[in-house]
Every structure is written in C-alpha cells, then in structure tokens.
Amino acid sequence: MSDMNQQMTARYKNNFLKEIEEQAEMGDWVKMCMQCGVCSGSCPTNFHGGWDHPPQELFMMIRAGKRDEVLSSNSMWQCVSCYNCYVRCPRKVPITHVMHGLAEYAYRLGKAPKGQPTQHLSKTFWDNATKYGRVNEVKLTQSLYFKDGIGSGIKKALEMQSMALGLVKAKRLNPMEAVGGGHKCKDLKGIHAMLAKARELEAKRKGRQPA
Amino acid sequence: MARKEYAFYPGCSSQKGASASNYLSSVESMCKTLDIKMTEIPDWNCCGASVSYAEAGELPRHVMNARNFALAEQNLPGQDIVATCAACWLGARESKERLEHSNVLMADTQEALKEAGLNIKVIPEVRHMVEVLIEDLGYDELKKPVKKPLDGMKFAGYVGCQTNRPFGIHGESFENPMYLDKLVESVGAEPTQFDQKVTCCGGALAFSEPDKAQAQIKDIIEAAYDSGAEMLVTPCPLCQANTEVYQGQINKKYGTKFNMPVLYYSQLMTLAYGGSAKEAGLDGNVIRARKLEEFAAK
Lengths: 211, 298
Ligand code: SF4
Ligand code: SF4
Ligand code: SF4
Ligand code: SF4
Hints:
The structure holds two protein chains of two kinds. Chain A has two domains: 3-114, Orthogonal Bundle (Fumarate Reductase Iron-sulfur Protein, Chain B, domain 2), CATH 1.10.1060; 117-199, no CATH class. Chain A is 57% helix and 0% strand. Chain A has eleven helices and no strands. Chain A starts with a helix and ends in a 6-residue tail after the last helix. The relative contact order of chain A is 0.11. By secondary structure, chain B is α/β, with parallel strands linked by helices. Chain B folds into two domains: 4-129, Glutathione S-transferase Yfyf (Class Pi), Chain A, domain 2; 146-297, Rossmann fold. Helix content of chain B is 47%, strand content 10%. Chain B contains 14 helices and eight strands. In chain B, α8 links the parallel β5 (154-157) and β6 (190-191). Chain B is globular. Chains A and B meet through α6, α7, α8, α10 and α11 of A and α2, α3, α5, α9 and α10 of B. The complex binds iron/sulfur cluster (SF4) (4 copies). One iron/sulfur cluster (SF4) binds at residues 86, 160-162, 200-201, 203, 236, 238-239, 242 of chain B.
C-alpha cells in the first residue's frame, strides 16, 4: 500500500464519501446525485464498448463506501471531457470534473489500474507541455507511440506513417521539433518555479504529504 | 487603428509548423479583411488541455492559465483574450470562473504567480474567435466583404463538443447550435441537415484508445455524407485534426471510402473574401479540398 493510501485510509476510516468530498476535485457534488441516469445515457464512450461503472453507478458506489472498487476502476478514465452529461444533469453535478477528480485521486494513491493508456497520455501530455511551456507535438507523438516498447512503437508508427507523412507534407507537423527545434516559452524558470509552488500549496491544502 | 483589438491566445496547435498552422494563416487573413487586430500575448504558455487532469491536479492547471491572464492584463490592458482553439478557450475560461468563485484558489494562485514575478488584478474576459465574429461584429458585417460567394457548395457544420459545452455560444442551444450553419450561409454556401453536429469525436482517446475514438469518428463522417455534404467545416483544431487525419485508417478497418475534406470556418471566409488558396491555408489540408482550390484559382 502506498504511503499516501495508508495515510488517507487512516484519516477517513470508513467514510469514503467524506474522503472523496475533501480529496477529489468537485467531490463535494457527489451527494447531490439523485440517480436519474441521464449522465450514463448521455455518455458517448459509454456506448462504444461501455464503462464497467458509468457515472451514475460510480456515485452510488461512493455513497455505499466501495472504496477499492471505485478507486481501482477503469471507468472514469474513459471520460473524454465532452460535457454532454455536465450540461444535462438535472442536479447540475459537474460530472466531467468529478470524473477527472476521481481519476486524479486514484492515480495519486497508486490505486489506478496499471498501464491505463489515458493515464499515460495525461502524464505524457502534461510533462511535455510544462517542460517548455508549450506542447512539442513531435516529441509528444513519439513518446506516445513508444510507450509499450520499441517493437510495438515501430508497429504503431508504421500504421500511423501515412497520416504523419500527410501532416508533414501539409507543413502541420515539423520534424525539426524532435531534434531540439520547436516552440518554447522564454521564462521557463518562472514557469517551473510557479508550478512547483502550486503543487506544494495544493498538497498543503488537501493535507497530503508533498510528493 | 483597427476597429477591434484583442489579446490573442493562439494555443500550441496553431503555431508555425504545428498541426493547426493552416487555421492560423486563414484566421490572419480573415481578420485583416475584417479589420480586427490580434496581438499575441507575449510569452503565452499552454493551457494544459483537459486530458492533463490526472498528472496536473487542480491548482497547477489554473496557475498555467493564470499566467496567461496576468501577461495579457499587463501587456495588453483592457483587451479581451481571444482563443482560436476550443480546448484553450474552455480551459482558460474554466480557470477564470473557478478563480473568481474561490478566494482560496485565487490566493494560492497569486502566491504561485509571485514565483514568476506576476500577479492578477482583474482577469480579462476569455472569448472564442467565433464569439468575436458573431457578437462583436454580427453576421451582417461578416457578409459585407464577401466578393466570391461559395455558391452551391454543401457543408456539414461540425460543432463538436468543446466550443459548444459547457459554455457554448451565448443564445445557442447545446443540442442544436445554429451559428456554424449561419456562418456557412453568410459566405453563400449551403449548410446540410447534419444530425451528428454536436457528437463528440472521442477527443484525447484518439491517441490513447484509437479504436473507440475511430468508431465515433466513423459515425460522424458517415452522417456527413448521408446529409449530402461535400465537405465538413469546424471551429476547433482538435475536431479538425481528429475528423481529418484518421479517415484513411477508418477506411482500412471498416472498408469505407471516406475522403472528405475538413475545413475551418475561417478558411471558407477567407476564400469568400477573395483570398488565395495560400492565404486560406488550403495547402495545410491533408485531404485536399480540390473543389475549393479550383474555386480560389478562378
Ligand atoms: S445526471 Fe446527475 S443526477 Fe442524474 S444520475 Fe447523473 S449525476 Fe446523478
Ligand atoms: S464528459 Fe465524460 S462522463 Fe460526461 S458524457 Fe462526456 S465522456 Fe461521459
Ligand atoms: S489545448 Fe492544445 S492547443 Fe490549446 S494550448 Fe493546450 S495544448 Fe495548446
Ligand atoms: S476534438 Fe472532439 S472531443 Fe475535442 S472538442 Fe472537438 S469534438 Fe469534442
């Protein structure tokens, strides 16, 4: 069990709803859900393949204290921020953000499913964007294709090759970005200091040990 | 002096050589014709986009947007921030709302900004380019400079999600927004009855879980063909990329024969205003819009 998971289990005992209310972004909205099911019926990624536990169900499970099932679920990682549910919920629950909040919290606790692809994308994207202040699309693409190792990376890159070549020809993907060119902010020092401070303050506010 | 001035937030994908660089060129020529001056926010940074949620957490995301607010306020006082990318617009606007509604978040944000030598007094308005066109100018003004109407061409207006929800364009419904259709009409073309106009394309899952996203994109393109459209038009660089660049893979997987060009509203406007194929960024379309290339050459 991770240190943070131990710390939180001890702090909240069996009150999982309270834990989510205080730790997950927008978690204090969970109690407002009236189980109408509109969110689950509106969710585009719940149709293709389907979620193990659509939003409505996750909310019910939180109230029922099913801590392990919720935190280790693959479901909230399927959210693509389309805001369909968000604008339709009769109780105005900001479902999109609660899904992101649950995913983030599960990830911090080390409870999220191993190798979850969207989790990997989230980290890769943020690291890429904050390193130079702006996204380097070529490096982003490279690290995404090679995440499962060289072999599968080459296979995927080949599958994607015609698409990438099209973008290069159309001058929309700049191969020079991969070798040190690419876009950068000038005040990188300021950006990095500011982000370090933000992480520290957020950990403090939520009573988490700083990472 | 230009008739309107804004603090421009281009976003990573609209930089030179990036995936939406052709959006940028068409926006530039469109704004020139409409006498709108867009000044880039000096040293702006990425908004982080929705998908960074797990790694970023809450405050760091808001702080990234707050830095842009502070830079705009300081360098371009009194100007609204205007984004061309739906995701940047949404991310920035969301941060603005959260910061304005929470003293705690605002105080923490100011403390973090101090590390970069910045601070916020009043957060500027955050707007999408489309809002500027519709609200600050209006359809009639947009029609005035039309020299070459796109007569007889049929477009499916793909609004997608993030320009539409959760904020949307004032006065439009979430289920059936009409502004993109009206923009198509204002350049003399014909919008089709397109039932997938607000369907999500799968967003970031196009990268992390391509099969799921491509299934959604297939439905969207199919419906565009069924509606009788020759081309798709969008207001967002992510929607544009997702619906354009995966058509080949979808064809392989499903045996379809998709080959539908996907344009930006600003490309249509540039062409109708008499701009060249280059000014409209047509060279940036992966699926070439031959009909429009011929139209521009006429
Ligand atoms: S739409 Fe809102 S109230 Fe209905 S189940 Fe979903 S979260 Fe609960
Ligand atoms: S925002 Fe997320 S949870 Fe809500 S409908 Fe869209 S994908 Fe589903
Ligand atoms: S959302 Fe995308 S385009 Fe917009 S700033 Fe962020 S990374 Fe760049
Ligand atoms: S790219 Fe897809 S998910 Fe993102 S705003 Fe456009 S339609 Fe929605």
